[in-house]
């Protein structure tokens, strides 16, 4: 009988304790994912409710780095991590309307990860889940034994593929290297070794990431000259001029 009374008291004390613990914990808003472009500005969205304006942003994935704080009606940046100095701001004119979004400028690869917003009455988790430095430029040039394709300053890690026109069943020897810079961006380069049987083929190089790709075609010199000759013939025809084969010989002498 005494044991039953003890069990009843303990159970109700435990329930009472849990209810009080839940009463003081902050409500957690569902996770939000954002993606950003390297060295551009990015916004981590957040809204809050409540009368007390207290805003703290932390980069949890980097060890709870202090990203930005705001209270007493002003920014509080004494404890801000050095890595975020001069790169963060809030939308001060919207704070009174319940907006606590963080603006991050000159986004770096190290900025990827999980961020927490903590306020007086609420806690949000933001996943900065994807950073992209898109493929802007692809260079293809001819070397002694073949052709080389190269692209720089890419994130995430890119892939490089070769294709031919017309399509070919031939197997080509190529060497591809990928290096990472101090900024954690990727440079990629691939060299294709050509033989005498490859003269009738034109080659294309494609550098791609999960969301972006760029291709460049490498045309043999004869193809370029023929295209130039055809364009010249069409031009003279449209201008009503008489075409002379001596003009074509002038073009072909460079081949």
From TrEMBL:
Keyword terms, alphabetized: Cell membrane, Disulfide bond, Glycoprotein, Immunoglobulin domain, Membrane, Receptor, Signal, Transmembrane, Transmembrane helix
Gene Ontology biological process: cell surface receptor signaling pathway; cellular response to lipopolysaccharide; immune response; negative regulation of T cell proliferation; positive regulation of T cell proliferation; T cell costimulation
Subcellular localization: Cell membrane
GO CC term, one of those recorded: external side of plasma membrane
Keyword Transmembrane attached: yes
Pfam families cross-referenced by the UniProt entry: C2-set_3, V-set
Domain Ig-like: 128-217
Membrane topology: Single-pass type I membrane protein
Highest taxon, organism lineage: Eukaryota
Signal sequence interval, chain numbering: 1-21
Chief location category: membrane
SUPFAM superfamilies per UniProt: Immunoglobulin
PROSITE patterns per record: IG_LIKE
Stored InterPro entries: BTN3A2-like_Ig-C (IPR053896), Ig-like_dom (IPR007110), Ig-like_dom_sf (IPR036179), Ig-like_fold (IPR013783), Ig_V-set (IPR013106), T-cell_Activation_Regulation (IPR051713)
Residue stretches spanning the membrane: 217-237
PANTHER family linked to this entry: BUTYROPHILIN SUBFAMILY 2 MEMBER A2-LIKE-RELATED, T-LYMPHOCYTE ACTIVATION ANTIGEN
Record protein name field: Ig-like domain-containing protein
Species name: Neolamprologus brichardi
Taxonomic placement: Eukaryota, Metazoa, Chordata, Craniata, Vertebrata
């Amino acid at each position: 009988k005494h044991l039953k009374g003890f069990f009843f008291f303990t159970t109700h004390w435990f329930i009472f304790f849990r209810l009080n613990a839940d009463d003081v914990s902050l409500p957690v808003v569902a996770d939000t994912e954002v993606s950003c472009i390297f060295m551009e500005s990015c916004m981590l969205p957040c809204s809050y409710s409540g009368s007390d304006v207290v805003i703290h942003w932390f980069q949890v994935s980097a060890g709870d780095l202090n990203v930005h704080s705001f209270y007493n009606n002003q920014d509080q940046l004494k404890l801000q991590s050095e890595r975020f100095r001069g790169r963060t701001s809030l939308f001060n004119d919207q704070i009174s309307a319940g907006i606590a979004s963080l603006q991050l400028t000159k986004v770096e690869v190290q900025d990827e990860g999980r961020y927490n917003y903590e306020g007086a009455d609420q806690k949000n988790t933001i996943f900065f889940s994807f950073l992209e430095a898109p493929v802007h430029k692809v260079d293809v040039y001819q070397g002694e034994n073949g052709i080389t394709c190269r692209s720089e300053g890419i994130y995430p890690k890119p892939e490089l593929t070769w294709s031919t026109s017309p399509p070919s069943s031939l197997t080509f020897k190529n060497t591809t290297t990928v290096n990472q810079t101090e900024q954690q961006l990727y440079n990629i380069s691939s060299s294709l070794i050509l033989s005498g049987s490859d003269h009738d083929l034109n080659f294309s190089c494609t550098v791609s990431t999960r969301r972006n790709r760029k291709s460049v075609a490498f045309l043999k010199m004869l193809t370029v000259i023929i295209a130039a000759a055809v364009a010249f013939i069409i031009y003279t025809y449209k201008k009503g001029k008489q075409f002379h084969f001596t003009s074509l010989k002038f073009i072909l002498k460079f081949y």
